[in-house]
Amino acid sequence: MPIAPETVSRVEWLGLTSQQFGAYIAGFGLPAYRGRQIFQALHRRFVTSVEAIHELPQGVRTALAAEADLEPLRPVQVFEAADGTRRYLFTVRGGHAVETVWIPDGRRVTLCLSSQAGCPMGCAFCATATLGLQRNLTAGEIVAQVLYVLRDTGRRPGPAQSANVNVVLMGMGEPLLNYSHVMQALRVMADPFGLHIVPRRVTLSTVGIVPKIIALGRETDRPHLAVSLTAATDALRNRLMPVNLTYPLAALQQACLAFPRHSGEYITFEYVLLDGINDSEADARALLRWLSPLRARNAAKINLIPYNPAPGIPFRPSPPERIAHFQAVLRAKGVPTYLRRPRGRDIFAACGMLAATAGPTTTCCPTGQPKLT
Ligand code: SAH
Asked: Measuring from atom 3 of ligand 1, which residue has the nearest CA?
């Protein structure tokens, strides 16, 4: 999907690597070291105006100020959960809402980024799907999510700091349907003069856009791959994830098998557990069967995600005993299987809850569920 014209009126500074930025700035007759100075000020000191780059002579600052849009995200609200998770609600040009989630875990932190405003995939259990696709985010808008949140939380990047920052493309949107902007954003984030968050610290999660998984496998510098599976039979996956009608499980399996992995690298398969829908022992066995060629190559790891209830979505979370049994069945066959602890549920920040809600409400969840207030 093309970027709406209102988003490309100027060169997007935050979407350029230091090298690209140097070439761009040379067009103003400025030497390369000036380009690097500005790039570092943006990506290391998180300045948000050219005026604040004091190393630049006043004349240069004045000349460049009109060219730069250094705040492509307009902050609307920040929600902080009891567990320290923060959900940032922004708007982007055109007025669309976008969310970013900050998930601290001891000294480490995971940043969950959005790749699109809304999402076109229509997964039946996901709140973001109710928005539909509004538009793709630009590379600068993706990078700006990291810059904004690191600035807001007082983190300063640099090789040592960024080692503790992991990025997951698991917010709003389907990253592989915004392939070129996502990959460009990852190049900018990896820049050693800036954030230096390298692709090996990044995980990209997809519903399974097969041709794009193949394209991703051909990249020299690429993030880790996670695939949202959630059902291991076509009949069920067709109902829960309409993408399966286009790229059914057999094609997805082929793409995953052919995906070139680094040594010791796994593909992560995410499986959202829905009460009475996909959480029986038979479902676990179907999953084992579907995974078997991948297991044979030690290529698969499973992340079980307890369903997070969201208003208007007609599913219920599986009871803990059933989740434990499901996990045990997989583990008994030697598949590394982890249970993702829900983070930030109380502020609608957990997986599948990003729906640009302005704030936690007292909306009642599906029958029998606790109120999310
Ligand atoms: N479109 C990509 C990126 C979003 S990742 C993808 O689907 O992979 C968001 C993750 O949250 C996906 O694994 C998705 O399956 C999961 N998810 C969606 N709705 C959920 C819900 N209500 N509860 C728990 N997880 C959910």
From this structure: 170
Span 29-60, pLDDT tens digits: 999 999 999 999 999 999 999 999 999 999 99
**Phi, psi for residue 165 in degrees, rounded to 5:** -110, 125
Ligand 1 atom closest to Cα of residue 121: 1
351 annotated active-site: yes
* pLDDT given for residue 8 in this prediction: 46
Other beta carbons less than 10 A from residue 371's beta carbon: 10
Where are the domain boundaries for CATH 3.20.20.70 in the chain? 74-347
Q: What residue ranges of the chain are covered by domains with CATH 1.10.150.530?
A: 13-65
Q: CA 91: distance to chain centroid?
A: 17
Exactly one of 99, 141, 174, 270 is catalytic; which is it?
99
Interstrand relation of 224-228 and 267-273 (parallel, antiparallel or unpaired): parallel
CATH number of 13-65: 1.10.150.530
Report the topology of domain 74-347: TIM Barrel (3.20.20)
pTM of the model: 0.92
99 is catalytic: yes
